[in-house]
Amino acid sequence: MEETLLKIEKVVIPAIEKREVDLVDLEYLQEGGYLYVRIFIEKHEGDITLEDCGSLSNEIDEAIDALIPHKFFLEVSSPGVERPLKKETDFVRFNGEKIKVSLKHKLNDNKNFEGIIEDFKDETLFLNIKGEILEIPFKEIKKANIVFDFSDI
C-alpha cells in the first residue's frame, strides 16, 4: 500500500500546487472491506469549501483510477477542527495551541499527553503540560492533533 500511496501523492501534489491549498494528510487504507483514498487539504487563508474539494476530486479522479486496479472511494475534505499535525512545520504553525500527542515509546511512563505547544525547535516539541515543559523528540511522535475546545462555542 505504501508504494501506491507514493504514486497517489505524485498525482495529488501537482493538482494541489495549482491551488492556494496545502496537503495536510493523504491516506490509502482499507476499512470494513472497502478501500479508501482520503485527501485532507486546507487553504492558506480562509476555509476549505465544498467547491474546493469537488474541484480537486474531479481533477485527480481519473489519474488515481488508473493507479488502483480495485474499486475504491475517493474522499477529499478539510482536516476538521481537530486537524492532525504531521509535519514539523505544523507544530511551528500551531504554536500556542492545545494538542494531544501519542508517542511510539513511553516517556515518563506514559505514551499519551495533552498540553499546549510551547515551542518546536531542533526536531523537538516542547509541550506545556500544566506548567511543566515536556521535551518530545519529533521522531517519537506517532500521532498528534489539535484539541478543539467545544465549550468556547
Architecture blueprint of SSEs:
Blueprint: H1 2-17, E1 21-31, E2 34-43, H2 50-67, E3 72-77, H3 88-93, E4 98-107, E5 110-121, E6 124-129, E7 132-137, E8 141-146
Parallel strand pairs: 2-3
Antiparallel strand pairs: 1-2, 4-5, 4-8, 5-6, 6-7
Helix pairs in contact: 1-2
Quick tags:
GMP Synthetase, Chain A, domain 3; 153 residues; SH3 type barrels; alpha+beta; 3 helices; 2 domains; 5-stranded antiparallel beta sheet; 3-stranded mixed beta sheet
Task: Characterise the protein shown here.
By secondary structure, the chain is α+β, with helices and mostly antiparallel strands. It folds into two domains: 2-77, 2-Layer Sandwich (GMP Synthetase, Chain A, domain 3); 88-152, SH3 type barrels, CATH 2.30.30.180. The chain contains three helices and eight strands, in the order αββαβαβββββ. It has helices spanning 2-17, 50-67, 88-93; strands spanning 21-31, 34-43, 72-77, 98-107, 110-121, 124-129, 132-137, 141-146. Strands 7-6-5-4-8 form a five-stranded antiparallel beta sheet. A three-stranded mixed beta sheet has the order 1-2-3. Helix 1 (2-17) packs across helix 2. The longest helix has 18 residues, at 50-67. The chain is globular.
Strand order of the largest sheet: 7-6-5-4-8
Say how many strands there are. 8
The whole-number mean of residue pLDDT values reads 92
The number of distinct structural domains comes to 2
CATH topology of the largest domain: GMP Synthetase, Chain A, domain 3
Unreliable stretches (pLDDT < 50, length at least 5) are none
Within CATH, the superfamily of the largest domain carries the name RimP-like superfamily, N-terminal
Portion of residues in beta strands equals 35-45%
The CATH class label of the largest domain is: Alpha Beta
Structural class: alpha+beta
Q: How many alpha or pi helices?
A: 3
Pattern of helices and strands: HEEHEHEEEEE
